[in-house]
Amino acid sequence: MQKHGSAMPLSLFRAGETVTVCRVRGNEDMKRHLQEIGFVDGAEVHVVSSSASNVIVLVKGARFGLDSKVAQHIMAA
């Protein structure tokens, strides 16, 4: 796991990594939607698979597929 000071977009992490959400960027609708499905500060996220176009993650026991453009708005370390 990375140091908390080096947050980077969720889209850059590799499959098998478990990271912690530091912040969610984007417009209010996007931030609200991501927070409703579990992407809140301090949430633990396990990257199941990652490709150039999408990221599959496990958050609070639920599996989600995110477009890589959306995953870029989730900053994690």
UniProtKB/TrEMBL annotation:
Pfam families noted in UniProt: FeoA
Keywords: Iron
Domain Ferrous iron transporter FeoA-like: 8-77
Keyword Acetylation included in the entry's annotation: no
Keyword Iron: yes
GO molecular function: transition metal ion binding
SMART domains cross-referenced by the UniProt entry: FeoA
InterPro entries hit by this protein: Fe-transptr_FeoA-like, FeoA-like, FeoA_core_dom, Transcriptional_repressor_C
Protein name: Ferrous iron transport protein A
Provenance organism: Collinsella intestinalis
